[in-house]
Amino acid sequence: MSHTPPKYVAWTRDQMAARIANDIEDGAVVNIGIGMPELVADHLSPNKEILLHSENGILGMGPRPAADAVDPDLINAGKQPVTLLDGGAFFDHSLSFAMMRGGHLDIAILGAFQVAENGDIANWSTGKPGAIPAVGGAMDLVVGARQVFVMMEHLTKDGQSKLVHRCTYPLTGLGCVTRVYTDLAVLDVTADGFAVRELCQGLSLDALQSLSGLTLAAA
Amino acid sequence: MLSKVRASALDALADVPDGATVMVGGFGNAGMPMELVDALIEQGATDLTIVSNNAGNGTTGLAALLAAGRVRKVICSFPRQTDSFVFDELYRAGKVELELVPQGNLVERIRAAGAGIGGFFTPTGYGTPLADGKESRVIDGRGFVLEYPIHADVALIKGRLADRWGNMVFRKTARNFGPIMASAAKISVAQVEEIVELGALDPEAIALPGIFVSRVVAVGKHAARSAA
């Protein structure tokens, strides 16, 4: 089998985050997950008012504080220090998860191990023996948010597609992902599978299909 | 005279029996009732079932209780953290049982116990391994899982201020599970920075009415708060 070096230029994580930030509408209420999606917060336009929700009881979360203004009682879902914007609110866990589960958030942005063309997502466990399972609020976010955006690398380190026909890892939720942002493409999940909205520079739809092992529609 | 004020954390936990189910508030260390957990370690109750969002950080608080071999089972949503090595080791060695519950189901099961609900159907977890073996139902075309309440013998929570009737206010994201857990336990014990006179708390700002609080202990400002 011969290898030809890829001719495309994959997006950086910051470029992926900037694309997501650009697609969030003024006035949206958004929950940003732990890990790669945290970069999205750095790219939100100052010209839009976007309300960030944190599962541990914040609506209107602000950026991280200066080192001398850290408050251990004011943290985000990743347990990192944050701030509260003017107009922000604190509340208990029951109300916070009512916001998530009850369909009150416009967008949830999560990382994932796999997303399937039927919108299923696997992002909480690889199912490996000896691994400590942890789920947090991911299952509540995916069933509740009006739109579920996934931000992830397109391929695993050994070249396997993270976009799949059906997930093989333990599921987080069924048929809930609406859009996927990878380093190679932006895709919508439709009733007929993935539809490509945008490709990174130099990548053809055929090449992306070949890398993904899936039939992809052009949006 | 109605006073729920106890002289010390140890005093407030004197009657916790072996085998008790103990809810512990907090999300990470925010809202973690560290002095009450320390007192529980000193008090000596063992074979405990702990209900908390996480399974201990570093070597203090819940991690110290686990390390002391006093916990039989943990019911939580997110045990795995960068500094959860105490739990990780016990779990891998088969020395502690884990019931993993999605975070929203965890809080709603606790809320259900406090609110007298016998069970509820939730979409969270439907079709996933965490719903295996549970009854499910399709309602209006959507899948739901039947979840049951989690009751506790004791809840340990942390607030900012309380009065002697047990009314409480909290601070920022340290509120999290506190008010909900207090409603779900036979005995709920709160640690606060300070106990104030009746009438000193703004009734509009009381986030936990005293009816849900059995005992209150003033522990002063936690060292970790000094930066604020």
UniProtKB/TrEMBL annotation, chain A:
<dbReference type="InterPro" id="IPR004164">
    <property type="entry name" value="CoA_transf_AS"/>
</dbReference>
<dbReference type="GO" id="GO:0008410">
    <property type="term" value="F:CoA-transferase activity"/>
</dbReference>
<comment type="similarity">
    <text>Belongs to the 3-oxoacid CoA-transferase subunit B family.</text>
</comment>
<dbReference type="Pfam" id="PF01144">
    <property type="entry name" value="CoA_trans"/>
</dbReference>
<keyword id="KW-0808">Transferase</keyword>
<dbReference type="InterPro" id="IPR012791">
    <property type="entry name" value="3-oxoacid_CoA-transf_B"/>
</dbReference>
<dbReference type="InterPro" id="IPR004165">
    <property type="entry name" value="CoA_trans_fam_I"/>
</dbReference>
<protein>
    <submittedName>
        <fullName>3-oxoadipate CoA-transferase beta subunit</fullName>
    </submittedName>
</protein>
<dbReference type="InterPro" id="IPR037171">
    <property type="entry name" value="NagB/RpiA_transferase-like"/>
</dbReference>
Automatic annotation (TrEMBL), chain B:
<dbReference type="Pfam" id="PF01144">
    <property type="entry name" value="CoA_trans"/>
</dbReference>
<protein>
    <submittedName>
        <fullName>3-oxoadipate CoA-transferase alpha subunit</fullName>
    </submittedName>
</protein>
<dbReference type="InterPro" id="IPR037171">
    <property type="entry name" value="NagB/RpiA_transferase-like"/>
</dbReference>
<dbReference type="InterPro" id="IPR012792">
    <property type="entry name" value="3-oxoacid_CoA-transf_A"/>
</dbReference>
<comment type="similarity">
    <text>Belongs to the 3-oxoacid CoA-transferase subunit A family.</text>
</comment>
<dbReference type="InterPro" id="IPR004165">
    <property type="entry name" value="CoA_trans_fam_I"/>
</dbReference>
<dbReference type="GO" id="GO:0008410">
    <property type="term" value="F:CoA-transferase activity"/>
</dbReference>
<keyword id="KW-0808">Transferase</keyword>
<dbReference type="InterPro" id="IPR004163">
    <property type="entry name" value="CoA_transf_BS"/>
</dbReference>
